Amino acid sequence: xxxxxxxxxxxxxxxxxxxxxxxxxxxxxxxxxxxxxxxxxxxxxxxxxxxxxxxxxxxxxxxxxxxxxxxxxxxxxxxxxxxxxxxxxxxxxxxxxxxxxxxxxxxxxxxxxxxxxxxxxxxxxxxxxxxxxxxxxxxxxxxxxxxxxxxxxxxxxxxxxxxxxxxxxxxxxxxxxxxxxxxxxxxxxxxxxxxxxxxxxxxxxxxxxxxxxxxxxxxxxxxxxxxxxxxxxxxxxxxxxxxxxxxxxxxxxxxxxxxxxxxxxxxxxxxxxxxxxxxxxxxx
Amino acid sequence: xxxxxxxxxxxxxxxxxxxxxxxxxxxxxxxxxxxxxxxxxxxxxxxxxxxxxxxxxxxxxxxxxxxxxxxxxxxxxxxxxxxxxxxxxxxxxxxxxxxxxxxxxxxxxxxxxxxxxxxxxxxxxxxxxxxxxxxxxxxxxxxxxxxxxxxxxxxxxxxxxxxxxxxxxxxxxxxxxxxxxxxxxxxxxxxxxxxxxxxxxxxxxxxxxxxxxxxxxxxxxxxxxxxxxxxxxxxxxxxxxxxxxxxxxxxxxxxxxxxxxxxxxxxxxxxxxxxxxxxxxxxxxxxxxxxxxxxxxxxxxxxxxxxxxxxxxxxxxxxxxxxxxxxxxxxxxxxxxxxxxxxxxxxxxxxxxxxxxxxxxxxxxx
Amino acid sequence: xxxxxxxxxxxxxxxxxxxxxxxxxxxxxxxxxxxxxxxxxxxxxxxxxxxxxxxxxxxxxxxxxxxxxxxxxxxxxxxxxxxxxxxxxxxxxxxxxxxxxxxxxxxxxxxxxxxxxxxxxxxxxxxxxxxxxxxxxxxxxxxxxxxxxxxxxxxxxxxxxxxxxxxxxxxxxxxxxxxxxxxxxxxxxxxxxxxxxxxxxxxxxxxxxxxxxxxxxxxxxxxxxxxxxxxxxxxxxxxxxxxxxxxxxxxxxxxxxxxxxxxxxxxxxxxxxxxxxxxxxxxxxxxxxxxxxxxxxx
Lengths: 284, 366, 298
Prior knowledge:
heterotrimer; A: mainly alpha; MetI-like fold; globular; C: MetI-like fold; 71% helix; 0% strand
């Protein structure tokens, strides 16, 4: 009996310790976001006088000057937020669409072949920094720098591989007999794909879409290099806030929360599929 | 000496009572079977004995030790699963040695025992092969071997032959029986195949819907079933069951088969006092196909005539379907060329082979 | 599977993908190869097609560049340390989470959420956490080493800065290893575990001798994927430490970024990129060859 008790106790201890380790840093950021200026540098967690000031500040940073006398001139978060939504949303849809068709061909007909598929994996396995340089030059010549289109193209290109692999897994599971039956009834190939296969893998589309959104939402390097003023995304905006501009801890924390809302919700929605998504469908 | 005593075992899964008040004993060296249709609770009972399920009520006693609250590791039983569950990533040797290794048996002894078992089970050549890649027959022997090698108090087997080819089954049955006798292992065997149970067991417990209906030797169960269910479950082809009424004619009892004119006179039997209690009541007549006699001529003692509706060939025997009111009565005879479909024949039902059951399932006379 | 794909399917399955890849990646990649052999100073107002050819000078310079080599070594060390820690933590956690217990569902959801946060946000979280006035110093370390905790400036010393990066990465990515291990371990057939139990094995024995060996291919995948991802490390270095103090936490991605964006030395950046790419592709190729040779399924 006591052996069982000890192992139960160990288990609870380990899990509680780990959960605390996971929650405490975030707790700090969350509580910081509600602290007013005088409380930004305190050592305790919960603010004595909670306020929404920081959230307002990130949208109207001009007020910072008045408050702190610092010459902290950062732009409002509105534009980066909208840019992120637009760019990430569009590239996600593109990745999923292209991914779906490619996955269908790969699953049913082996076309494209394994080499192409492996190549798409490389786009994800190699560090972005190692190919951002020529893209910068390339875009500069094509006048795609600081453009939404440029970012959308690139984001789609590097995440389409997830669309392909995740959807291939889903399509593989659709019995081919169903498609053949429809074909025998006279449906064209295209119709079969849209009317038979597509509806069945709906959840696959959602999973890959949400996951790709998650990844692109977080993307920093490409946006940092390729955008400037117009197409600035949220991660870039955050990076501007940190370090450079006079220790605006409160607004930084508020920014952090703002940027995490969508990813956390997505993460919760696709919990069950996270493993499959992260491992390109290798683990089910 | 009782190796295993199960007392009032009850196990529930939510609202479903899978095992109801099951009690039985298994003696040392005995081959004991739990026989019943799917879902009757036999596997659950077995798992409770192994320790993989915790019973809600009752006790399990293995060799005078109450193991009811003990985990599977400490009970001294071995279990061969229906799916064999050999460890696919280990070699045959490692599979066989597993139980011994866990018991911290010295290497030399492990080697000796593994070689012994491998010899008996014909696995010697496969010892270094990876278990996951082998065929069903080998896997079954591995599962058996690793269970036997730890010398359990009692060996439990959960429908081990279900997944095996029909032809191989026969050989395996013989093997199992022989093995059990040679090594003097106490076995508790779970199956839904009545032929299997009848062939291999010293005693059988027939189960249905979570309860034990009858315990006895194969002969006892065959000749002296206490419930309609048992009579129906045992024996192939299935027993004929006819609804009838016990009537009196001229001071003697007779059975009037429902919806027919057929009367079976019971004459002056010694069971008069038993019969008198059920006079006028509905009874179920059980007669096994192999006990029915057919003749083309009317001979004394024959009860009624009928037409042959259908003949099913079964090798050196035939199952003859004889029309009786709305349905059939089936008879089993050795191969005869004089019987053809459409023939009119006479049927005799030997009184000594009749099994009478009350319409609420109970037996009376043999 | 049918053998000959209908034309429309082939088009749909190949054309959009190829279009996308060529337009956004393959052409720039070809460009990069060309750029690496140039001596190009964009500040001088000339375009790349006008820049003079310089042969392998950039590459030679790379091999003599101690900052580059240091960044490579540092990043590799980072990957090794981080993956090792995450592996053991993730595995241990998976072991403890395997059985049913009260609150398991919620725990599971909570454990994995760091994975979903954008890397910048994680960097931000730890940037705040490791501040001089932050809780790391003032609450936690105080408990351990008392007042002298005030004197630790996480981002001002190269060792502690490096450690802070490690902590941030471990915080975010241990759940990944955990998830992969956990799903693999849970998928091991219950029958096998029962069989081992009846044979007398304890939970620990079952874990080490049955469950773990059965998920070996999974372990490999988890480690390789994590290592590749860890090698890319940029966000936390850029945001938390800026590569500093000095260049002591400068990862390879950060260095290449600097060369291209801050020093405007495009050709050199291209050369560096190529070198790193070649090394990585060789390693990945070797790994795939290795796992196929061994018959381990991908």
